Give the backbone structure.
Amino acid sequence: MNRALSIRSRKGEKKEDAPKHRFTMASLRGIQQPELSKKLFKLIKSENHAIGNYEAAGRERIGIASQLSEWGESTNDETVSDISDKIGVLLSELGEQEDHFAQNLEDYRTVLKTIRNMEGSVQPSRDQRQKTMDEIAKLKHKEPESAKIPTLEQQLVREEAQNLVAEAQLTNITRQKLKEAYDLHFAATIERAEKQIILAKHGRRLIDLLDDTPVVPGDTRPNVFEGASQARQILNDAEADLREWQPSIEAITYKSQGMGSNLMPAEESIEAQSGISAAEIAPEESKADHSKVAERYRSNGLSFQRYSPLNPTTTGSI
Amino acid sequence: MNRALSIRSRKGEKKEDAPKHRFTMASLRGIQQPELSKKLFKLIKSENHAIGNYEAAGRERIGIASQLSEWGESTNDETVSDISDKIGVLLSELGEQEDHFAQNLEDYRTVLKTIRNMEGSVQPSRDQRQKTMDEIAKLKHKEPESAKIPTLEQQLVREEAQNLVAEAQLTNITRQKLKEAYDLHFAATIERAEKQIILAKHGRRLIDLLDDTPVVPGDTRPNVFEGASQARQILNDAEADLREWQPSIEAITYKSQGMGSNLMPAEESIEAQSGISAAEIAPEESKADHSKVAERYRSNGLSFQRYSPLNPTTTGSI
């Protein structure tokens, strides 16, 4: 690990401004991605290539296993034939484990897609809000007395409410799914590693049975392999060890487990579709530590339960 | 390991006859391989593809590591940014380990080439002997009195002597190098696995720092990441663990270590080049258990030391 503790390139802080509604090509296939989900879209594509490489490596390994076995048979040396065939069995299983790893990575990739999709769906909400804000600013400059301004401002209030929900859903999904994705990724890495260690260690026992004492011309090797039963036992041991394998990893703790389908804290109920139609929930208690943004949200006539890590049933209200 | 204990296909015992000197295409590149080394030639080619897949997977993983870090930064969530950057560091190292594994497999592949090359070089010796035998058989049938026959028979004796040496060299190299090759292969598998377990376990500690408690609309996440110093410590721990990694595998025992450059048992000296010019070595002791082939070899005026596992200095002679 001879690297800096960050791999991020420090090429000047090119802070992106509030994203514009600007679709650009994100793929040669012409699939268009909203700005917000572009980075993850590309990452998910790269992961697809990585997975493909593991699948191919697994296939090759299984093929090599057969080739080794066939080669061993062709040597007409019973010992080499038996051992190479059994190494082949282990190699083939090593290949299967590569493939199983690839399938597990596919699951991790699917979880990343959840974040990407959420990013994609939040983009229009951000864009619409920005567009209205720009319009108001333009009007105020050009026609400060325009009757359109109050109408647009009321529209902005609704759009901001919608956007607040969208941004909360985005951060909730992002943190939960990022955690889940790399939970899966690292668990898959450990599983492949532990299983391959089992196989490789038994493989080493196997090759240790191969007597490589050199012979002189005219000497013939014994035409039975004395270690045959030991070799078979090694395969049985490997099979048994693999069957008994259990994940040894410690579970990751999730605090978002009760998150509802609305992607809000559990026991929360929020409706903020295109218009303002927040559910009317009887406030139980009012907290003072509301953020400025939340304040504005509430001052616009919305009511929602507010999540507090200390007291999850605490509610905030209008 | 849901498979038979052998992966070899049992498609009838199509025993190959004594190989003919028949060159066929073994590759689309038009590289011609002797019959004897064809199987290994193909296996070594397949291994090259497998290695390429691991190299590509490693490269992709390192690329994904950067993409994840850049994505995290773009979320403008300090916690996600920091954790994704550090996951990126670990992913990048996972990728480096794939690449290191590929390099180790390259070493194993080089060892297999030694067997393949020996196979290729033994082929002409087998072919020449077979050709002479065929010629004698043909003559004996057509012109039993031909004066050519004794000449050919003398030639055959020399060719058989040469072939005996070649076959001994082949079996010595095959067993030694097969053992060495999979010693390297399995050791490389274990090394990658153990190192990746270190990285993945620390990775799991890292994602456990990510607070995925959901928020409600208007709530803002704290703009400092409280686990920042713990996260940094995790990377330091991972780096330290990786630095301290030592191979834990048990050494394979080789009995061919003293094998000379002539590929014969140590302290043996055999010269059997194109003609019969075996080194004259004073016989110390004569053993009775000589094989029929060795007997014929000796009866043709050759002398060589005979290797006995019980008494390596025991010699056989004319």
Q: What stands out?
A: Helices of chain A lie at 38-74, 78-142, 148-208, 228-244, 292-299. The two ends of chain A are 53 Å apart (CA to CA). Confidence is low (pLDDT under 50) at residues 10-30, 268-318 of chain A.
